[in-house]
Amino acid sequence: MIRTTPARLAVAALVCIALLTAACGKEGSPPTKGPAAGKLPHYQVAEGFELPSSPTWERARKRGYLNIGVKEDQPYLGEKDPASGTYSGFDIEIARMMSASLGFDPSTIRFKTIASANRETALQNGQIDFYVGTYTINDNRKKLVGFAGPYYMAGQSLLVRKNEKDIHGPQDLAGKRVCSAAGSTPYQRIQTDYPRATLVAYDTYSVCVDNLLTYQVDAVTTDDAILIGYAAKVPDELKVVGRPFSKEPYGIGVPRDDNALRFALDDALEAREKNGDWKRAYEATLGLSGVPAPTPPAIDRYPAS
Ligand code: GLU
């Protein structure tokens, strides 16, 4: 059930603005808008790149640019600056390096914000060419879309208020109000493995976080990579607790039948991991939250469907 009403959103926005302003004014507080543009890597655009066997790539070539689906409210991963409309974060950098590898100047990308529950439809109806936004690869989703990668390994975790004493892990969620995004794997895992929790779903995790700050829910659950970003923005108010209790390998979602695009993206990821671009991108974005660059997971080049 999605319970995003305009009134709730307005309250959430006010709380968020108040907190962000407070955090911005504090000395030593983490940057609220992600990396400075000058610190981001520059990706060499492949010259004369051709991928005629990919209908998605061919359509993009005729159009002249890529449409890429992303998130816009996930700090250090995919975040849109409301003033400039600029997107930044690790997922955005992955999208930019993939664009360069496919022969499209990253400055021409049209980013489209797509919520977790709408990713498969957006890929199926051609609204986007591919999707880079904390998108877990799994067998259920593979029935609907294809996945290049993985390019990062996250794990489900819990975000609570700083003064929370009772919640240390998913075993403590019975009778608690737990918020997650509709259509996400963390939402599904709570539903099946921790049925005594009271689940609340919104379109986005940022609305869940606003609800946590206003005592309307007791915890927010999703990937640790996402939660660490929210906690880093208001470290006096929020904390991530417990150990990750799942594996969430992040893939690049592609239209299911476009194996040529999927394999080209696998090649591109491998090359960008090898030449240091992946690590530079991580350090300029997700790395700002304080976690050093991990070794990227092995690419799973599964057979054409
Ligand atoms: N990685 C999880 C998923 O793909 C949670 C994050 C998200 O909703 O994007 O469902």
UniProtKB/TrEMBL annotation:
One of its GO terms (biological process) is amino acid transport. It comes from Streptomyces olivochromogenes. It comes from the Bacteria. It holds the Pfam family SBP_bac_3. The keyword Transport applies. InterPro entries: Bact_solute-bind_prot3, Solute-binding_3/MltF_N. Gene3D superfamilies: Periplasmic binding protein-like II. Residues 1-22 form the signal peptide. Keywords: Signal, Transport. Residues 65-289 form the Solute-binding protein family 3/N-terminal domain. This is ABC transporter substrate-binding protein. Belongs to the bacterial solute-binding protein 3 family. The keyword Lipoprotein does not apply. GO terms for cellular component: extracellular region; outer membrane-bounded periplasmic space.
